[in-house]
């Protein structure tokens, strides 16, 4: 150091670690005895139900969103089929997975040159094809009636 000052004393020094068992560390690493053994395991087991509940709720929300997507597509297919003179109900349920098509309700109505299709689907609870929620998801679509030439 310039000016002849010696090394600056350090206030923080790492704690010395003692290894037992000679030169090659034959003994266990020894620090202060821990009374927290298993603390992480206990905390994880305490949080596990909350983690699982969160995953189940996220999965259920994904099923609700997927059901809305299926209902909208089925209504669009049904309205398109009815607009060209096809079978509305068959077209509405043709692309649905079996877990949703068993509870599907398809209806078409024509007024003023416009065909409107409504599809109602039940939202499954946790697994498609299982128990359903007590509410339905509704998808609606409309197409202009096409006249045959």
Describe the structure.
There is one protein chain. The chain is α+β, with helices and mostly antiparallel strands. The chain contains 3 helices and 5 strands, in the order E-E-H-H-H-E-E-E. The strands form 2 sheets. It has a 3-stranded antiparallel beta sheet. A two-stranded antiparallel ribbon has the order 1-2. The longest helix has about 45 residues, at about 40-85. It is elongated and about 100 Å long.
User: What is the spatial order of strands in the main beta sheet?
Assistant: 3-4-5
What is the oligomer described by this structure?
A: single chain
Uncertain regions spanning at least 5 consecutive residues: none
Mean pLDDT: 78
What general outline do the C-alpha atoms trace?
A: elongated
Helix coverage percent of residues? 25-40%
Cα-based radius of gyration, to the nearest Å: 34 Å
Proportion of strand residues: 15-25%
Structural class: alpha+beta
Number of helical elements: 3
SSE order, one letter for each helix or strand:
EEHHHEEE
What is the strand and helix layout of this fold?
Layout: E1 18-19, E2 29-30, H1 39-83, H2 88-94, H3 98-101, E3 105-111, E4 114-124, E5 132-144
Antiparallel strand pairs: 1-2, 3-4, 4-5
Please describe the structure with a list of short key phrases separated by commas or semicolons.
single chain, 149 residues, alpha+beta, three-stranded antiparallel β-sheet, 3 helices
């Amino acid at each position: 150091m310039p000016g002849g000052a010696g090394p600056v004393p350090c206030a923080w020094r790492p704690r010395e670690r003692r290894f037992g068992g000679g030169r090659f560390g034959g003994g266990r690493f020894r620090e202060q005895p821990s009374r927290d053994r298993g603390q992480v395991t206990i905390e994880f087991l305490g949080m596990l139900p909350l983690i699982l509940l969160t995953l189940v709720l996220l999965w259920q929300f994904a099923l609700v969103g997927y059901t809305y997507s299926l209902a909208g597509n089925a209504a669009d297919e049904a309205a398109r089929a009815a607009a060209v003179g096809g079978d509305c109900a068959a077209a509405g349920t043709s692309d649905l997975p079996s877990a949703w098509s068993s509870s599907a309700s398809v209806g078409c109505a024509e007024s003023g040159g416009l065909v409107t299709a409504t599809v109602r689907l039940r939202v499954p609870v946790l697994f498609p094809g299982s128990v359903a929620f007590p509410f339905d998801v509704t998808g609606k679509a409309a197409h202009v009636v096409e006249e045959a030439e």
